[in-house]
Specification:
Elements: E1 16-17, H1 19-27, H2 39-48, H3 54-65, H4 78-88, E2 92-93, H5 99-107, H6 114-125, H7 138-159, H8 171-180, H9 186-197, H10 210-220
Parallel strand pairs: 1-2
Helix pairs in contact: 2-3, 3-4, 5-6, 6-7, 8-9, 9-10
């Protein structure tokens, strides 16, 4: 079990950790070894840092990082938990990440196209243009990761209404999705949604157009897509 200083949130005597060190540390509190952190397990991790109010902070940590709402923090949500720890537990991240390392991190989440996403992640976060993401740029990388997680969650919700399972949304399917939110005038809004997001004009919304549909949903359906 890691050792801790009594001065704030020192982990292994340090305030600074790499992503791998944070993952390794947090795994030490996964008592049932299911690869996820429950609120009780997170509370014990926070308590180990000597932070005040571990129960309250664990509740806030789950609320902040549990993107899919299942009550646990899994590997795909770990970067959001990192940001929470940085803001609330006084833990800082250090070292630099290159594209290959980011690709491996993305691959570990079982996400598709890790190489392409790593390339986009470096492009989004590498402010100084040296091809590496350092601790000054980690927040931009977290924002990129949060957007990808939010988009993934929106895709999973939309898939429920793809009745013919062709991987695309037609106007009728979008109308049913909008109706499920309780929004008024679902037919009219579905028509506007397809018009707004259907970039290639084929009458369907495919995977390449899903981001535009997500933006439409946020603006017109009062859907708040949480990262």
């Amino acid at each position: 079990m890691p050792t801790y200083s009594r001065k704030g949130a020192h982990v292994d005597g340090k305030r600074e950790m790499t992503l791998d060190e944070f993952k390794e540390w947090i795994r030490g509190f996964d008592k049932d070894k299911d690869g996820r952190l429950s609120r009780d397990e997170l509370r014990e991790a926070i308590r180990a840092t000597r932070a005040w109010f571990p129960g309250w902070k664990a509740k806030r940590g789950i609320k902040a990082a549990d993107v899919n709402g299942d009550g646990f923090i899994d590997d795909t949500e770990i970067m959001v938990l990192m940001e929470f720890a940085q803001k609330n537990l006084g833990i800082r991240w250090f070292s630099r990440i290159n594209r290959d390392e980011l690709q491996e991190a993305i691959r570990s989440t079982r996400a598709w196209f890790p190489n392409w996403k790593a390339k986009r992640g470096v492009k989004a976060a590498n402010v100084n243009g040296d091809g590496l993401i350092d601790d000054c740029e980690i927040t931009a990388l977290m924002e990129f990761a949060e957007k990808r997680v939010a988009l993934h969650g929106f895709k999973e919700w939309v898939k429920q209404f793809d009745v013919d399972k062709d991987g695309r949304m037609n106007r009728d399917e979008l109308r049913e999705a909008i109706r499920s939110t309780g929004a008024w005038f679902p037919g009219w809004k579905a028509n506007n949604g397809v018009k707004s997001a259907d970039a290639n004009g084929d009458g369907f919304i495919d995977d390449s157009e899903i981001t535009a549909l997500m933006e439409f949903a946020e603006k017109n359906l009062s859907i708040k897509i949480m990262p």
